Amino acid sequence: MSKLLFWQGIGRPSVYHAVIVIFLEFFAWGLLTTPMLTVLHKTFPQHTFLMNGLIQGVKGFLSFMSAPLIGALSDVWGRKYFLLITVFFTCVPIPLMKISPWWYFAMISVSGIFAVTFSVIFAYVADITQEHERSTAYGLVSATFAASLVTSPAIGAHLSNLYGDNLVVLVATVVAVVDICFILLAVPESLPEKMRPPSWGALISWEQADPFASLRKVGKDSTILLTCITVFLSYLPEAGQYSSFFLYLRQVVKFEYASIATFIAVIGILSIVAQTVFLSILMRSIGNKNTVLLGLGFQMFQLAWYGFGSQPWMMWAAGAVAAMSSITFPAISALVSRNADSDQQGVVQGIITGIRGLCNGLGPAIYGFIFFLFHVELNELAPVEDKTARQDPSDENAVIPGPPFLFGACAVLLAFLVALFIPEHSKAANTRKHSNSINSIQSNSPDRGSDEDIEPLLQDSSV
Question: What is the 8-class DSSP label of residue 95?
């Protein structure tokens, strides 16, 4: 079975296999944007937003705990098997939305254990691309994620208005099944056979499975530590913004559902352009580190604009800046991948994905708490003309309409300051590390599956 799973597929491994997997998975979830808000509000009529933060918090924490293990396992046993597992368990909750909302939200929380598709996908891409091609490939994957959000929420909202939420859930389930079948039948294995053990009996040490062991080793490598802190401080506000922004546009800025769908589509298209065209140009012209800094600058600016802005035109203008800030994560992923051995890509990307998973849990909770402190209620889904989002438009909220976004801008400012200390080049360390890796492979090639040959993190990198 494992032999069949590893070797079947259409053609040679390519970036296009990865982007199709990502597109289908997030397209399925994007279809559920409108039904999700409805089910969430009906299931938790009181403190809807806080319950959403709790659910996402559990999911994010489990993702953080499991990401290093899944990354390490994919470095040993291959990417395809874990692509299948992560996509399957991430999409399992979809049909439960209409069968049992309580089971649906429970499964969303538990699915965080396997909600690390991005780490496996980025490791897949790293297996099949050269270093100078990697940032462009990562940008294409991230742009595909944005592309899945261009059409799916609008399509889901349109189908929901015409035929009801049941059809939307059915379509999303079918898309998820197609994604699973595509991985099973069409995606070839990217990890070279010589880097996989001869059998499935290869041992994985507890150090590789322990996320806190990875964190301890991160702490010993100052450059990786700086990179991880940058990811944490920049993605924490992004996760909170993503979880609350559509409700914020609806309740506070008074966007209609059609306007929200159009907003998502336009910003998604701009993000695709940023991550495919501008990212490649910037990486070649100003370098990897400066591209990260530029992306953080765009993110800080758009969050501050959302924090002080209250007019619809400001939301659109800041959204264009937000689209440019989408270059940050693929640039950081390329920076980390460039300094990892070929047999460590899954582990390294798993650590970054784990940190993002932790932010996916903390971000919504922090944003919800700040909204609560400033009396900005996002619990209601009533028509905008019948509700006021604020208790008193003359209070302090009129000065700072979006307080959590201002908090996010401050966090990104800290991320920017930390990123300034990340070295741009580490060729000497890379050369030393590469030679050590070659010597290790040559001396241990008969026993590639032993746990002594597999380090859970970068060896002696100084990214």
Answer: T
User: Lowest mean pLDDT: which of 160-169, 280-289, 294-303, 438-447?
Assistant: 438-447
Residues in Cβ contact with 115 at an 8 Å cutoff, skipping those fewer than 6 apart: 59, 62, 63, 86, 89, 90, 357
In this structure, the chain runs to a length of: 463
Q: Which of the four pLDDT bands, split at 50, 70 and 90, describes residue 227?
A: confident
Identify the residue whose tokens are 């409700």. 247
- Looking up residue 311, the CATH number of its domain turns out to be 1.20.1250.20
Domain end call among 192, 226, 242: 192
Q: What percent of the chain has pLDDT over 90?
A: 15
pLDDT for the residue 450: 38
What three-state secondary structure class fits 344? coil
Straight-line distance from the first to the last Cα atom of the chain, in angstroms, rounded to the nearest whole number: 39
Closest CA to 29 of 102, 117, 90, 101: 90
Question: Taking Cα atoms as reference points, which of 334, 309, 327 lies closest to residue 137?
Answer: 334
pTM of the model: 0.68
pLDDT tens digits, one per residue of 358-370: 787 788 778 877 8
Taking each helix axis from N to C end, the angle separating 79-91 and 165-186, rounded to the nearest 10 degrees, works out to: 170
Structural tokens at position 243: 């979880």
pLDDT at 461 over 70: no
CA distance 270 to 306: 18
Q: At residue 50, what is the residue type? A: L
User: Collapsing DSSP states into helix, strand and coil, what is residue 418?
Assistant: helix
CB 461 within 8 A of CB 433: yes
Kindly give the residue spans of alpha helices, DSSP state H, lying in 286-426.
Answer: 288-308, 312-324, 328-338, 345-373, 403-419
Query: CA 39, CA 41: separation in Å to the nearest integer?
Result: 5
- Residue 364 to residue 384: CA distance in whole angstroms: 23
Cβ atoms of residues 58 and 361 within 8 Å:
yes
- For residue 90, the enclosing domain spans 9-192
Same structural domain, 262 and 411: yes
Own/partner long-range contacts of 439-443 (Cβ < 8 Å, ≥24 apart)? none
Q: What is d(CA 322, CA 400) in angstroms, rounded to the nearest whole number?
A: 19
Does residue 178 form part of some domain? yes
With a CB cutoff of 8 Å and minimum separation 6, the contacts of 156 are 30, 31, 32, 33, 34, 35, 168, 171, 172
Separation between Cα atoms, residue 111 and residue 116, nearest integer Å: 10
* pLDDT for position 389: 41
